[in-house]
Design goal:
Layout: E1 4-9, H1 14-25, E2 29-35, E3 57-58, H2 61-67, E4 72-75, H3 79-91, E5 95-98, H4 105-118, E6 122-124, H5 130-143, E7 148-155, H6 165-175, E8 198-200, E9 203-209, E10 215-223, E11 226-234, H7 241-251, E12 257-259
Parallel strand pairs: 1-2, 1-4, 2-3, 4-5, 5-6, 6-12, 7-9
Antiparallel strand pairs: 7-10, 8-9, 10-11
Helix pairs in contact: 3-4, 5-6
The structure holds NADP nicotinamide-adenine-dinucleotide phosphate.
Length: 266
């Protein structure tokens, strides 16, 4: 099997660093370039804290994909750039694997249409942690029996979007099996705006942002005389890499956009 040629956007970020290490240590993966927001070195090896790799550093994805071989673009940047990067990747016949969160439904629909027109595989996974995907699946199972549910997600305080993509995805999966129902007392009021969190089909989502946290989520179910908590914790960014590896291997075999790691896990 030929090596999978990979370009990583956002290599100095917390996720990007782990992705560079993943590609470096995986036999059949080859890093052909990185896309950074600034040039802090001509090659990856010159960037502090990154493995000693000779892959060149670019700031312009068009130029990068015109000059280097690339089968898969991994994007771990911001939603604003993530979408642009996906469009450029499609134009170059490159398959994107995107962990960047904060895409709107409209963005995903538009990108799906482009992937379909081009016949190219693409994966957007708001959460690459396999344990988090299981948490979502178990929550959807539980919601068939427990209609009353609230979601609490907790992340580090550098996260830009709220609620997290995982919380929204969990709420979506639950709402596919749960009849819409406003959570809490029918006459409840917020004495302080936002106290009851965001409203998704009557379900409440609460977002906590604190230094020291990585990515955590608890789905709380309540019933007569019982509660059920389904919780997942990502302790560090390495926890996401088995999911990134699975997505890279899968994106080469599909010809459409798949949203969510759960849709590529058997
Ligand atoms: P981070 O540490 O802030 O890293 C983002 C990196 O992207 C930074 O190095 C930033 O460079 C770079 N960047 C921004 N714009 C760029 C551009 N146009 N071209 C190239 N690089 C650019 O964030 P993170 O924690 O790694 O997270 C990155 C993304 O992944 C976020 O959207 C986050 O929500 C998401 N995330 C996803 C998962 C998942 O499992 N899917 C898990 C954790 C995080 P500068 O510092 O110079 O701006």
């Amino acid at each position: 099997m030929n090596d999978v040629k990979i370009v990583i956007a956002g290599p100095r970020g917390n996720m990007g660093r782990e992705a560079v290490k993943l590609v470096d240590r995986t036999d059949h993966f080859q890093l052909t370039a990185v896309l950074d927001s600034k040039i802090l070195g001509q090659t990856v090896a010159e960037i502090e804290g990154l493995p000693s790799l000779e892959a060149p550093v670019y700031t312009d994805l068009e130029a990068c994909l015109a000059e280097v071989e690339c089968d898969v673009l991994i994007d771990l940047t911001t939603p604003e750039f993530g979408k642009k990067h996906m469009e450029i990747a499609f134009a170059h016949g490159v398959r994107p694997v995107v962990g960047t969160t904060g895409f709107s439904n409209e963005d995903v629909e538009e990108l799906s249409r482009t992937a379909e027109q081009k016949g190219l595989g693409a994966i957007i996974a708001p959460n690459f942690a396999i344990g988090a995907v299981l948490m979502m699946k178990f929550s959807a199972m539980a919601a068939k029996y427990f209609q009353d549910v609230e979601i609490i997600e907790q992340h580090h305080d550098r996260k830009l979007d709220a609620p997290s993509g995982t919380a929204v995805k969990t709420a979506k999966m639950i709402s596919e099996v749960r009849e819409e129902k406003p959570q809490g007392h029918e006459d409840e009021r917020e004495d302080l705006e936002g106290a009851r969190g965001a409203d998704y089909n009557g379900m409440r989502i609460h977002s906590v942002r604190l230094p020291g946290l990585v990515a955590h989520q608890e789905v709380l179910f309540g019933g007569e005389g019982q509660t059920l908590k389904i919780r997942h914790d990502s302790m560090n960014r390495a926890s996401f890499m088995p999911g990134v590896k699975l997505a890279i291997e899968t994106v080469l075999k599909i010809d459409q956009l798949v949203y969510g790691l759960e849709n590529i896990m058997e």
